[in-house]
Specification:
Layout: H1 4-11, H2 15-23, H3 30-43, H4 49-56, E1 61-65, H5 74-90, E2 94-98, H6 103-111, E3 118-121, H7 131-136, E4 141-144, E5 155-158, H8 160-173, E6 178-183, H9 186-190, H10 194-209, E7 213-218, H11 223-236, E8 242-245, H12 251-260, E9 270-275, H13 277-282, E10 288-291, H14 294-309, E11 317-320, E12 324-325
Parallel strand pairs: 1-2, 1-3, 3-4, 4-5, 5-11, 6-7, 6-8, 8-9, 9-10
Antiparallel strand pairs: 10-12
């Protein structure tokens, strides 16, 4: 393995001078920088992003900003992160994962250094406090999610409004007349998280168009909370025959709760969900669902960013259409 001392010997300078050339902590002459850069290239020295930055004026590092706030389902977030990392590696880029909830202060601290070339921002709120900074940064960015006002930004995501509509329209085609959305934890709605709000909008709009009775119920991500919501729904909507779930951890606990309360799925109650396919397929009664395309969204977010880094034009908005897969959890409504 090539060491910094090997680079120093090749360039005819001290190891500390190589370190300064990489870090930029002390000024060195352009001639010395050139010799160090040539030695790095000739020896194939790759200690970290700084070495690549010396030759290209870039760090070859992307920042993935995903605050791990309350109510976030971490396993699904990590699916997006893995897709971003693996796609970035195809472009010879590393990824710096930023998980603290620091708003624009954290973004500015990273953007004002040479740590990263560009940013991918997740957990987007409708009125996100980071929007002004993202619009003003010289470094390119892509948001996975759509704020209420997305002008001047590059955004990509599943069309969550259309996903909510697709679930309701499927239930309506099967003859269901009373439906409910069991949604994300309450704090997700309090923050006005964009994807959760879009699902509610689509669910409500589709139910209204089809003349269905409908209701929306936030739910904590626990089996106990799922049981309480199931009891509430049967108490308040005795004619309920269709449910849409947008809360990955409670898909199976909610079905279990309904069946413990005497409803058969899908004989008495049809259930749809918006979730990754592996969750929908693993439930005891496989669930009709709109797939969450985390791999595709992460990959395309990096592709958009790479094109922006190369000076290319990209669309401001990329909405992936929902894909609903019918499984065993939905059936035509049985008339009493």
């Amino acid at each position: 393995m090539v060491k910094i001392t090997d680079v120093a010997r090749q360039a005819g300078v001290s190891p500390s001078t190589v370190s300064y050339a990489l870090s930029g902590k002390r000024p060195i002459s352009e001639e010395t920088r050139r010799r160090v850069a040539e030695a790095i290239r000739e020896l194939g020295y790759r200690p970290h992003a700084g070495a690549r930055a010396l030759a290209s004026s870039r760090s070859n590092v992307l920042a993935l900003v995903v605050p791990l706030r309350a109510g976030i389902h971490v396993p699904v977030v990590m699916q997006f992160a893995v897709s971003v990392v693996t796609t970035a590696r195809r472009y010879d880029h590393d990824v710096l994962l930023l998980t603290q909830e620091e708003g624009d202060d954290g973004l500015r601290r990273v953007a004002d250094t040479a740590l990263v070339d560009a940013l991918i921002v997740m957990d987007v709120q409708l009125h996100d406090a980071r929007l002004g900074l993202l619009r003003s940064l010289e470094r390119p960015s892509v948001m996975i999610g759509f704020p209420a006002e997305a002008t001047g930004l590059t955004c990509i995501d599943l069309d969550f409004m259309a996903a909510g509509e697709a679930c309701v329209e499927h239930l309506a085609r099967l003859g269901h007349r009373t439906v409910a959305l069991v949604g994300s934890p309450p704090e997700v709605y309090l923050r006005q998280t964009a994807f959760a709000q879009r699902v509610v909008q689509g669910f409500t709009a589709a139910a209204d168009r089809s003349g269905l009775a409908s209701s929306v119920h936030p739910c904590e991500a626990s089996p106990a909370a799922a049981r309480l919501v199931a009891e509430q729904l049967l108490r308040e909507q005795p004619a309920l025959t269709g449910v849409v779930v947008h809360n990955e951890p409670i898909v199976e606990p909610l079905i279990d709760a309904f069946e413990q309360l005497g409803l058969r799925v899908p004989g008495d109650l049809s259930v749809t969900a918006i979730c990754p396919d592996e969750i929908a397929e693993s439930v005891r009664v496989p669930v009709t669902s709109v797939s969450l395309p985390s791999a595709e969204v992460g990959e395309r977010a990096v592709q958009l960013l790479m094109k922006k880094l190369g000076g290319g034009a990209v669309p401001e908005a990329t909405l992936l259409p929902p894909r609903l897969t019918e499984r065993a959890s939905t059936a035509p409504r049985t008339l009493a």
